[in-house]
């Protein structure tokens, strides 16, 4: 099976970069990166030291429901190119491990699918999970803070 890592849609990101409201109705906060641990969810690269970035509340689900987690994410403040949708592990995934968790077509967690996975093993774990009929897509989340990183789907 072929998988693809998916960044946030460009239309949504451009709206936020232009001052649009986040998931809580607030304007994104602007910060300057020290170059450490500021992964942009659009280009799937880290924001370089000295570059401006946005901090905002993001809900990677189409509607409110009990499993629709909302949390903080980072984006480049200036326009950046969206990461290609392919099987390559995103550059920004630098931690030793991440939560990898499956969701059904109803956007609910598929219980038993989640786990803390070593970064080099994320793609293999995603392929295994996506072989299941009850899993529509996967989230990669921080193993320390549960922050949304990116989505994985079947190619």
UniProtKB/TrEMBL annotation:
Xref: InterPro entries: DUF1203 (IPR009593)
Domain of life (superkingdom): Bacteria
Protein name listed in UniProt: DUF1203 domain-containing protein
Pfam families xref list: DUF1203
The species this protein was found in: Mesorhizobium abyssinicae
């Amino acid at each position: 099976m072929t998988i693809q890592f998916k960044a946030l849609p460009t239309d949504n990101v451009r709206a936020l970069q232009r001052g649009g409201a986040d998931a809580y109705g607030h304007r994104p906060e602007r910060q300057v990166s020290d170059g450490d641990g500021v992964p942009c969810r659009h280009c799937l690269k880290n924001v370089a030291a000295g570059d401006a970035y946005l901090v905002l509340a993001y809900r990677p689900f189409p509607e409110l429901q009990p499993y629709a987690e909302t949390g903080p994410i980072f984006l480049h403040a200036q326009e950046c190119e969206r990461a290609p949708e392919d099987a390559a592990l995103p550059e920004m995934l630098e931690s030793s491990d991440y939560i990898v968790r499956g969701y059904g077509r109803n956007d609910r967690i598929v219980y038993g699918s989640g786990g803390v996975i070593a970064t080099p093993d994320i793609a293999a774990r995603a392929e295994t999970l996506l072989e299941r009929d009850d899993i529509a897509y996967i989230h990669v989340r921080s193993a320390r803070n549960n922050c949304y990183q990116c989505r994985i789907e079947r190619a």
